[in-house]
Design a protein that fits this description.
The protein is α+β, with helices and mostly antiparallel strands. The chain has a domain at 283-417. The chain has ten helices and eight strands. It starts with 7 loop residues before the first helix and ends in a 6-residue tail after the last helix. The relative contact order is 0.13.
């Protein structure tokens, strides 16, 4: 009834990887000094990981449960793959999560090329969190799913590249511990935070009052770490101030020069946000935000489909019980069939309601895909390289619209077939 996995994310990932590669080279001029300052750790952080939610899958598993759970776990899964230390940072990480629910419980096995045990354990934990409280149907067949995951090394935090990049990478890896800074953006797209972090060599800190800082108009740096991040949007001023406070508490960095000023970009998205980011954000970050939001909407659609299927299975059982009773040769059973009509009516009404909820979830998904298509079309007008993203976005929107039409047709058919006052 629904597609398995989208190709849109692949198009977004390719476009965003290109952005990261270009942005990583903007930290200085040419030559060896520029290479030492080149930053490769511009890795987006989904603040939805700070405010985790669990989609409503009901209590009994069906053929859509694992699809919904895996999609809902995707922000956490991607964060599990953000740290290059838990995988091979020089090659793409590719793997799969094998999930099953049967009478013995829930099983999640994670395997991948270059993935270390810590990364696999992190992914397993993220998936299990979504499946908590869900069990197999009584006497039903096990439900299983193999879900792929992949991470481009350009979109991993890699330490040891150079001093400047390590500073940015250290801050990026610390973001999940600084969630309080994002409290005002629990359901909004966060702004980009940019600025600089100035470092003083650890063995010079005690002599800081004697060191002039020609890069700061003669104002002396007296701390090992001094952060000066700002928000690209006024709404993020408090988040920027909070982040500066956190960065300033980091332990001293080992650096070669007496003083090192590092340009920092914190690329933030929120898959729990209902819309895209500010138009002032870099285009690829805007698209990344929409992709994150789309994945969450897709998870909600699958969760609605999961609940709808549970209601449908219950109603089918009611219909079968009624038909068996009404066709029985036993007069008592045929008489009992009449008492079942009230339950049939309520069961069918519940099915129609579940159909409506599923259609609305799909419409929420389509709204995000429409925003992405419009953004891609706008960007392609000045940059033809966005043509692939436009094509992928249009394809996703068309597919979702077909799902909406099918869901509404099924709803109408169910409503028409529901038992009326006279059955």
């Amino acid at each position: 009834m629904r597609r398995q996995y989208s190709l849109w994310s692949a198009a977004v990932a390719a476009t965003f990887a290109t952005f990261l590669a270009c942005a990583g080279g903007q930290t200085g001029g040419g030559g060896a000094d520029a290479d030492r300052q080149r930053i490769v750790n511009l890795v987006p952080f989904d603040i939805a990981n700070c405010f985790t939610t669990k989609v409503d899958l009901g209590k009994t598993a069906n053929e859509y449960t694992l699809q919904a759970a895996y999609r809902a776990a995707r922000p956490a899964v991607q964060e599990c793959l953000a740290d290059g230390r838990v995988q091979n940072p020089s090659a793409p990480t590719r793997g799969k999560a094998t999930m099953s629910i049967d009478s013995t419980g829930t099983t999640v096995a994670v395997a991948g090329e270059g993935l270390q045990p810590a990364g696999a354990s992190c992914i397993e934990k993220a998936i299990r969190a979504q499946l908590d409280g869900v069990s197999a149907p009584a006497g039903g067949k096990p439900v299983t799913l193999e879900a792929p995951f992949e991470r481009d090394p350009r979109n991993m935090v890699r330490l040891g590249v150079n001093e400047s990049s390590d500073v940015v990478g250290t801050i990026r890896l610390a973001l999940p511990q600084w969630c309080a800074c994002f409290d005002s953006f629990k359901t909004q797209a966060p702004p980009e935070l940019t600025g600089s972090v100035t470092l003083l060599r650890p063995d010079y800190v005690q002599y800081a009052d004697r060191l002039p800082d020609p890069k700061d108009g003669g104002v002396k740096i007296t701390k090992a770490v001094t952060s000066a991040l700002q928000s690209t949007d006024p709404s993020g001023a408090q988040a920027a101030a909070c982040m500066n406070d956190r960065v300033n508490t980091l332990p001293p960095f080992k650096i070669t020069p007496d003083i090192l000023t590092v340009p920092v970009q914190l690329l933030l998205v929120n898959s729990n946000a209902p819309a895209g980011s500010s138009a002032s954000a870099p285009p690829s970050l805007q698209f990344e935000q929409l992709d994150a939001a789309r994945e969450q909407k897709e998870a909600e659609s699958f969760a609605a489909l999961t609940r709808r299927q549970t209601v449908a299975n219950a109603y089918d059982a009611q219909v079968q019980a009624y038909q068996t009773a009404s066709n029985s040769k036993d007069p008592k059973k045929r008489h009992a069939a009449g008492a079942m009509i009230k339950d049939l009516k309520s069961g069918c009404a519940a099915l129609v309601k579940a159909d409506d909820e599923y259609a609305r979830a799909l419409e929420g998904e389509a709204a995000i895909e429409q925003q992405a298509l419009q953004l891609a079309q706008t960007l392609k007008a000045t940059d033809p390289s966005w043509a692939d993203a436009e094509k992928a976005s249009g394809g996703m929107l068309a597919d979702t619209q077909k799902q909406i039409d099918a869901a509404k047709q099924l709803r109408a058919a169910n409503d028409k077939a529901c038992p009326k006052e006279k059955f």
